[in-house]
C-alpha cells in the first residue's frame, strides 16, 4: 500500500547534448524555410523580366511595346 499514497517521481532532466542537437536541427530547418521563402519571392519579382528578355524574342530589348494595342505602323 506504499505505492498508493506515494507521489510519482519526476522524469530525469534531459541531456544537454540532446537539447543542443535538437536546437541545431530546429535552427537548420528554420534557415532552410526562410531561404525557400526568399527564393520564391525573388522568382516572383525577377521571373517576368527574364521572360521578357528571352532569346526567343526578335528584339528582346524593345519589350512588349510593339505588341500591345492597335498597330502603330499604320
Task: Name a few traits of the molecule.
single chain, 74 residues, 2 helices, rod-shaped
- Provide the helix percentage: 55-70%
Number of strands: 0
Q: Return residue spans where pLDDT drops below 50 for at least 5 consecutive residues.
A: none
The whole-angstrom Rg is: 31 Å
Element-by-element helix/strand order:
HH
Query: What would you call the shape?
Result: rod-shaped
Q: Report the portion of residues in β strands.
A: under 5%
Distance between the termini: 104 Å
Q: Output the number of helix runs.
A: 2
Largest sheet: none
Structural classification: mainly alpha
Summarize the entry for a quick read:
By secondary structure, the chain is mainly alpha-helical.
Question: How would you describe what is shown here?
Answer:
This protein is an all-alpha fold. It has a domain at 26-54. The chain has two helices and no strands. The protein has helices at 2-5, 16-52. The protein is rod-shaped, with a radius of gyration of 31 Å. The protein starts with a helix and ends in a 22-residue tail after the last helix. The model has no long low-confidence stretch (mean pLDDT 77).
Write the layout of secondary structure elements.
Elements: H1 2-5, H2 16-52
Amino acid at each position: 500500500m506504499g505505492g498508493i499514497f506515494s507521489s510519482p517521481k519526476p522524469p530525469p532532466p534531459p541531456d544537454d547534448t540532446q537539447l543542443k542537437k535538437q536546437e541545431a536541427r530546429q535552427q537548420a530547418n528554420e534557415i532552410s524555410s526562410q531561404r525557400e521563402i526568399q527564393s520564391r519571392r525573388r522568382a516572383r519579382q525577377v521571373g517576368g523580366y527574364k521572360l521578357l528578355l528571352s532569346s526567343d524574342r526578335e528584339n528582346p530589348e524593345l519589350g512588349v511595346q510593339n505588341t500591345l494595342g492597335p498597330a502603330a505602323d499604320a
